Amino acid sequence: ILKKLADLKATGQVKSIIVLLNVSNPMELDFLEPSLCGVDYGVDACLWVGEVGQNGIEAIGDLLNGTVNPSGKLVDTYCYDNLTSPAMQNTYVTSYTNAAEQGLAFKNTCNEYYEVYQEGIYVGYRYYETRYEDTVLGNANVGKYDYASTVAYPFGYGLSYTTFEYSGLTMKEDGDNFVFTVSVSNTGSVDGREAVQIYMQSPYTDYDRENGIEKAAVELVGFEKVTVPAGQTVSVDVTVPKSELRTYDANGAETYIVDAGNYYFATGNGSHEALNNILAAKAELKDTANDAIVAGLAIQDQPESTGEMPTMGKEGTLTLSQFVGVPMDGSITVNGQEYTWDDLLNQLTFSDMTKLVGLAYHSTASASNVGKPATKDENGPLGLTATLTGGGSSTGYTSADILAATFDREIAEAVGRSLGNDCLMATGKAYSGLYGPGVNIHRTPYGGRNFEYYSEDPFISGQICAAQVGGIQSKGVYVYMKHFALNDQDTGRDGLCVWTNEQAAREIYLQAFEYPIEQANALCVMTSFNRLGTTWAGGDYNLLTNILRNEFGMKGIILTDFSNSNNYMDVVQGVVAGGNAWDANDANKWPAKLKEYKDNATVCNAMRDASKHILYTVANSNAMNGVSENVQIVEVRAWWQTAIIVLDVVFGVLAVGSAVMLVRDIRRKKES
Q: Would you say 151 and 77 are in contact if contact means Cβ atoms under 8 Å apart?
């Protein structure tokens, strides 16, 4: 197509050629560079528009004719050849070479595949800019590298119909923050908006080398979006928390550290310009599943019963509506007597808890003993997909990377409010929970769900997600950020073993989830299908309890991804690890297994804790709108539950009939 357009342009039949990239996955841009592709297509402009949602396409004409001045910035690195990414060397799923002899067949146990995040922290621009600096400084063992013929457009880069100049960058300390102030001048003839970005380079010390700590040459640590009228200058403040200076020391201190040394901060139109401003101031695996891996892939031994059994089914009149807005360690006073969440939980029966934990398919179950209504939860990173479970259609929003490219928290928050309103205005009963936003990382340009995730960078991902979450939850809709964690590709992800180091896990893949929890009180997460090492993410105590609960402080529901057919997503292992609810609607699967542990104190106490997180989440949602302590909760059966029961009965009758006919046929043949 480009060749035909180029021929038409040469004859004057086409005035100019503008390429629109209507995609979320970063495309190779070699067609823009004649020296690399061998053909001059005469492309005059290239505009990345992402996936524009149901109405965004209408804005493109306004962008092209100048009615609207673009102000976005790239949230991924765009290369001439995507295979230059080090992650591409290990982006495919690989079978353990002895998988067959070890019985790790994928179709049966989801244990066959693994993937190595061998690039560590060097994802996206962190790799390209670090290698560029090593080349410029002449550091040893970097090999032959030409940044200009590798990277077409860097992370954070963006053009406008006007031009901006920066000057007078200063910094001051303000408690736990640094505040950077810079003057931004609009030197063009039209009004424009600019995303002012602050990048940091931290010192790479002998201690880092001795303890295997990696440092990228530059990383985004702050931004603000501002409007600058033509010919005017505005002063912009960008706040950077001092905690952004930290790095994770997995081998030495086994915690976050801040190295002594020189820290450089710079602005720029993207990561590359910022790094150049800093510079101006101053490297094939085939693995087998060894015995430890094989043992780790098996469903863990079920826990012994320790401690005392919790109180269950106690008579009481407390209702969930009385605990609306009450902290998890708080209490209420009724008729002069103080009651805590434990008193409410005591009224739950074991059966109540098995339903709350084991039956959470796009919903949370009702619990009449405490006046908890059932809720409707639905998928929706890019818009409420209510039609999936029989609801009406809703707004389709842009891909997540386009939202991140605005570098504008106010827009992200407004999109969140709109999405929350969609949940409230759904046909029939409002939706209380949303399966989204998606917060995984664009580890490579070929991620199957890059359109649902924000960026290759955890800072812009987490900051924009925090703003969007704040908007969604302001409408009483709790979010399930997904997929927690390291679910950065979709091919073979069921049970996929992801091998990485702890520094990369924390600084790249977990940090994007941390910001929304700390800044916007994001209530819930959906866990992922993959494993961290050999441990399923939804059954990993360190991930769910030590990090998500104890470090990040998340208070709401930890929900699995769809788990009807995946046996390795074991409910007992998961609930003891800190998981709360299983996205499943098969009453003969997880609830039935939980019932085997009705006398196990360890499991019952874990179920009680899970129920508390579920009740707390619902108490702080729109599900309690209009519900008072006098409202009686009555359990009803949804149409699809009835349909499933009818189908079970029908297929059961057919199976019995078929068996009878088979027996008769065998007898007739024997008699014959």
A: yes
